[in-house]
């Protein structure tokens, strides 16, 4: 059974305090590892896809990395507007890219 | 940008009612998905469709059915709503690498 586990469940940071979120996965025939951001009352918003171990992608203060078993979302000098739930998902299981989601990390950045 | 529209943001239904949740996308994508999201459980796939009139069960299809008569529209049907189906329902569409989600329908069954 495909499984995606995120840690920690919740993280509180001070503005400017860098940290990382973890996503460990066991997904059969992994074809992509996805990161999404979700704000309260809204649907998830796509951030990154990583396809192979060693790959890195960046967007503003966020950088996602991938190993054979884990992915990390590094947040550098976060701002209060980075506060959200960050979701990790593994895509696999054939050509239809069915996603298996982790439960998410709720990030709060205090000013 | 792809737009995914879910017909209702909030819905309150009675136990035993038949409930229809509608999702429309404007970009001619083949794949469409229905997820439910619950605190502590995350997003779980209910059903997905990769073409008109085609559907496949996801991880938690019990108590649900779907309909896809036109490419742009994917409907989730609760045959007889129960209180344990109170949840946030999210529709998604797109091609790899990233899917686009709708804003969700928060359904309460009383």
How would you portray this structure in words?
- The complex is a heterodimer of chains A (111) and B (110).
- Chain A is built from no helices and 11 strands.
- Chain A is mainly β.
- In chain A, the strands form 2 sheets. In chain A, strands 2, 4, 5, 9, 10 and 11 form a 6-stranded mixed beta sheet that branches. In chain A, strands 1-3-8-7-6 form a 5-stranded antiparallel beta sheet, with no helix packed on it.
- In chain A, strand 9 and strand 10 form a beta hairpin.
- Chain A is globular and about 40 Å long.
- The model of chain A has no long low-confidence stretch (mean pLDDT 92).
- In chain B, strands 2, 4, 5, 6, 9, 10 and 11 form a 7-stranded mixed beta sheet that branches. A 4-stranded antiparallel beta sheet of chain B has the order 1-3-8-7, with no helix packed on it.
- In chain B, strand 4 and strand 5 form a beta hairpin.
- In chain B, 35% of the residues are buried.
- The model of chain B has no long low-confidence stretch (mean pLDDT 92).
- The chains are: A mainly beta (111), B mainly beta (110).
- The interface between A and B is medium-sized, with 23 and 25 residues.
Brief synopsis:
By secondary structure, chain A is an all-beta fold. Chain A has strands at 3-7, 10-14, 19-26, 32-38, 45-50, 56-59, 62-66, 70-75, 84-92, 98-101, 105-110. Chain A is built from no helices and 11 strands.
Secondary structure layout:
The complex is a heterodimer of chains A (111) and B (110).
Chain A: E1 3-7, E2 10-14, E3 19-26, E4 32-38, E5 45-50, E6 56-59, E7 62-66, E8 70-75, E9 84-92, E10 98-101, E11 105-110
Parallel strand pairs in A: 2-11
Antiparallel strand pairs in A: 1-3, 3-8, 4-5, 4-9, 6-7, 7-8, 9-10, 9-11
Chain B: E1 4-6, E2 10-13, E3 19-25, E4 32-38, E5 42-51, E6 54-57, E7 64-70, E8 73-78, E9 87-93, E10 100-101, E11 105-109
Parallel strand pairs in B: 2-11
Antiparallel strand pairs in B: 1-3, 3-8, 4-5, 4-9, 5-6, 7-8, 9-10, 9-11
């Amino acid at each position: 059974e495909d499984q995606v586990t995120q840690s920690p469940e919740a993280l509180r940071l001070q503005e400017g305090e860098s940290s990382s979120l973890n996503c460990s996965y066991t997904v059969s025939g992994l074809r992509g590892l996805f990161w999404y951001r979700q704000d309260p009352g809204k649907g998830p918003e796509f951030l990154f896809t990583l396809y192979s171990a060693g790959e890195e992608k960046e967007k503003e203060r966020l950088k996602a990395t991938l190993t054979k078993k884990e992915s990390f979302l590094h947040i550098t000098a976060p701002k209060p507007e980075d506060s959200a739930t960050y979701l990790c998902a593994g895509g696999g299981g054939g050509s239809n890219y069915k996603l298996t989601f982790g439960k998410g990390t709720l990030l709060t950045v205090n000013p | 940008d792809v737009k995914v529209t879910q017909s209702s943001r909030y819905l309150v239904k009675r136990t035993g009612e038949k409930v229809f949740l509608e999702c429309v996308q404007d970009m001619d994508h083949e794949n469409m998905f229905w997820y439910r999201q619950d605190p502590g459980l995350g997003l779980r796939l209910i059903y997905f469709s990769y073409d008109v009139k085609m559907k496949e069960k996801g991880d938690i299809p019990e108590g649900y059915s779907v309909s896809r008569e036109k490419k742009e529209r994917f409907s989730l049907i609760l045959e007889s709503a129960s209180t344990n189906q109170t949840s946030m329902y999210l529709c998604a569409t797109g091609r790899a690498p990233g899917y686009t989600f709708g804003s969700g329908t928060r359904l309460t069954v009383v």
